[in-house]
């Protein structure tokens, strides 16, 4: 499978809430760089992250745009997150089903036909404003 197709499958799994499908596409030593927080290494920590996200948010990604380098191993993805805030977290506003639409992006790296890095960026102050407003 080509890297671009692998990444498209990864995001299709995300939108279908197919967490097992997403995890199957990851290198066992996946480097997960979240927007806020520590870097997580390994599929087990990634699975924990997905579970926490699933409990707190109901999200789908729209308007995905894929950009790939010449070597075909690094992909940038721009998208718009449509979400529902279901469960608050430490240091975040209380959740009561607020909806939000938030632009975001990610950088991914592929090695040996597996995703070995996912780095996600979004504007946290804007998200807070959206769910507080």
Description:
With 133 residues, the chain is α+β, with helices and mostly antiparallel strands. The chain has a single domain (3-132), classed as Nuclear Transport Factor 2, Chain: A. It has helices at residues 3-16, 19-24, 43-56, 124-132; strands spanning 26-33, 40-41, 57-68, 74-85, 98-111, 114-122. A six-stranded mixed β-sheet has the order 2-1-6-5-4-3, with helices on both faces. The model has no long low-confidence stretch (mean pLDDT 96).
Largest sheet: 6 strands, mixed
Q: What is the architecture at the second tier of CATH?
A: Roll
Shape: globular
Name of the CATH first level: Alpha Beta
Report Rg.
15 Å
* Arithmetic mean of pLDDT: 96
Strand content: 35-45%
Low-confidence stretches: none
Fraction in helix: 25-40%
Helix segment tally: 4
Name the strands of the widest sheet in spatial order.
2-1-6-5-4-3
Helix-strand topology string = HHEEHEEEEH
Structural class: alpha+beta
Compute the number of structural domains: 1
Please name the CATH topology: Nuclear Transport Factor 2, Chain: A
CA distance, first residue to last residue: 43 Å
| Total strand segments | 6
Describe the secondary-structure layout.
Layout: H1 3-16, H2 19-24, E1 26-33, E2 40-41, H3 43-56, E3 57-68, E4 74-85, E5 98-111, E6 114-122, H4 124-132
Parallel strand pairs: 1-6
Antiparallel strand pairs: 1-2, 3-4, 4-5, 5-6
């Amino acid at each position: 499978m080509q890297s671009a197709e692998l990444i498209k499958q990864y995001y299709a799994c995300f939108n279908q809430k197919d967490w097992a499908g997403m995890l199957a596409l990851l290198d066992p030593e996946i480097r997960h760089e979240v927007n806020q927080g520590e870097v997580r290494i390994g599929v087990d920590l990634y699975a924990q992250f997905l579970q926490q996200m699933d409990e707190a948010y109901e999200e789908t990604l729209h308007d995905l745009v894929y950009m790939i380098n010449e070597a075909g191993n690094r992909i940038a993805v721009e998208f718009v997150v449509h979400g529902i805030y279901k469960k608050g977290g430490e240091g975040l506003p209380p959740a009561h089903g607020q909806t939000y639409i938030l632009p975001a992006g990610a950088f991914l790296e592929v090695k040996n036909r597996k995703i070995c890095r996912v780095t996600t960026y979004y504007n946290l102050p804007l998200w807070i404003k959206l769910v507080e407003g």
